[in-house]
């Protein structure tokens, strides 16, 4: 994967952060004023969950990485100041989660992210 031409966004760093044991490394990839919108079964497109800033993003990542689950970066494409990636997760009980992200980059960090996720029920 490596670094995208003309961008400081490194997909191997993203992989290590996603697949790590804490959200700290992943949090470092966001701008201070980043925004995340999450769309899923409970947060539909007309009313997504919206997180503003690294403080709220840190809370989300702490919650996610304190769960008994694994995370894997499946694919990542970077072009200019945009990136898209697929992530698969699995809880210890076998429940699977898939998440697709579209991000806007600023100075090699994530400034805006849309996450669409689905999980086994």
Topology of this protein?
Elements: H1 11-18, H2 24-27, E1 30-39, E2 49-52, H3 53-65, E3 69-79, E4 82-91, E5 96-106, E6 109-119
Parallel strand pairs: 1-6
Antiparallel strand pairs: 1-2, 3-4, 4-5, 5-6
Sheet having the most strands: 6 strands, mixed
Q: What count of helical segments does DSSP give?
A: 3
Output the structural class. Answer: alpha+beta
Mean pLDDT: 92
Strand line-up of the largest beta sheet? 2-1-6-5-4-3
Q: What best-fitting shape do the alpha-carbon axes yield?
A: globular
Q: Whole-Å distance between the termini?
A: 33 Å
Provide structural commentary.
By secondary structure, the protein is α+β, with helices and mostly antiparallel strands. It is 21% helix and 47% strand. It contains three helices and six strands, in the order H-H-E-E-H-E-E-E-E. Strands 2-1-6-5-4-3 form a six-stranded mixed beta sheet, with helices on one face. It has helices spanning 11-18, 24-27, 53-65; strands at residues 30-39, 49-52, 69-79, 82-91, 96-106, 109-119. The model is unreliable at 1-7 (pLDDT under 50). The protein starts with 10 loop residues before the first helix and ends with a strand.
Summarize the structure.
It contains 3 helices and 6 strands; from the N terminus they run ααββαββββ. It is an alpha+beta fold.
Give a quick set of tags describing it:
121 residues; alpha+beta; six-stranded mixed β-sheet; 6 strands; 47% strand; disordered N terminus
């Amino acid at each position: 994967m490596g670094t995208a031409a003309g961008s400081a966004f490194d997909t191997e760093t993203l992989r290590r952060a996603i697949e790590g044991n804490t959200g700290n490394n992943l949090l470092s990839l966001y701008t201070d004023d980043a925004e995340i919108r999450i769309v899923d079964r409970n947060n539909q497109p007309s009313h997504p969950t919206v997180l503003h800033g690294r403080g709220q993003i840190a809370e989300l990542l702490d919650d996610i990485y304190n769960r008994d689950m694994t995370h894997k970066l499946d694919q990542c494409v970077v072009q200019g100041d945009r990136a898209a990636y697929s992530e698969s997760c699995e809880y210890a009980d076998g429940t699977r989660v898939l998440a697709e992200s579209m991000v806007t980059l600023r100075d090699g960090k994530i400034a805006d992210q849309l996450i669409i996720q689905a999980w086994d029920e």
